[in-house]
Amino acid sequence: MTLHAKNAVLVVEDEESIRRGLCDVLAYRGYAPEGVERGDDGLRRGLSRQHALVLLDVMLPGMNGFDVCRELRGALPQLPILMLTARGAEQDVLDGFRAGADDYVTKPFSVAELLARVEALLRRAGAALGDDQAPPFAFGPWQIDRTTRTAQRDGHSVELTALEAGLAALFAREPGRILSRRRLLREVWDVANPERIETRTVDMHVAKLRKKLGAAGDALIQTVRGEGYRFSS
């Protein structure tokens, strides 16, 4: 990845004022933003150039954000994708995760929260590219490899995102201990001040990880109401 690509952020947003505002904020923070209005144009730009991250709206002309996300994820599995959704549109969030999004921000959003999410995803992507050289570890009946981002069991393999693999690794290091959502945000998402963020991101990613692990998922990752999650090996 070139130096420019490390700072390049593709912004796919059809509302001109929001698109320009996002590009201005990102440029001010040292990124090299590229704004695109249509979903199909965003897909072409995403596939033809190297980007460090994609900011992707849901409702777009030409091609909706879910389809763009699905195509980008299939072609570029390591590319961080942050989706922009309407406030309260929980189904959009779920559909975005199913399409392969790494995280989401709801509109209207604060600049501080958006930048925190962007920076956290970029840190996670950097760690996944260079630092996750630890050997595979046991996660119940599964063997998880952070280097290849896969979980394997009885000859069956499923792909994990960097965040899902990070969640599993933290749970496996502290079996039986209740891990709060704030701690998970701090250690897995690299959010410096998680107490300032109200989000269901952790819950959504835990649900995705459970689903990928099949019937064992719910038993391995237990919800502790009002406190967080606990890994039961």
Model description:
With 233 residues, this protein is an alpha/beta fold. The protein is built from ten helices and twelve strands. The strands form three sheets. A five-stranded parallel beta sheet has the order 2-1-3-4-5, with helices on both faces. Strands 6-7-8-9 form a four-stranded antiparallel beta sheet, with helices on one face. Strand 6 (137-139) and strand 7 form a beta hairpin. Helix 3 packs parallel to helix 4 (65-75). The chain starts with a helix and ends with a strand.
Please summarize what this structure is.
With 233 residues, the chain is of the alpha/beta class. It contains 10 helices and 12 strands.
List the helices and strands and how they pair.
Elements: H1 3-7, E1 8-12, H2 16-28, E2 32-36, H3 39-48, E3 53-57, H4 65-75, E4 81-86, H5 90-99, E5 103-107, H6 111-130, E6 137-139, E7 142-145, E8 150-153, E9 156-159, H7 162-173, E10 178-179, H8 181-187, H9 201-212, H10 215-220, E11 221-224, E12 228-231
Parallel strand pairs: 1-2, 1-3, 3-4, 4-5
Antiparallel strand pairs: 6-7, 7-8, 8-9, 10-12, 11-12
Helix pairs in contact: 3-4, 4-5, 7-9
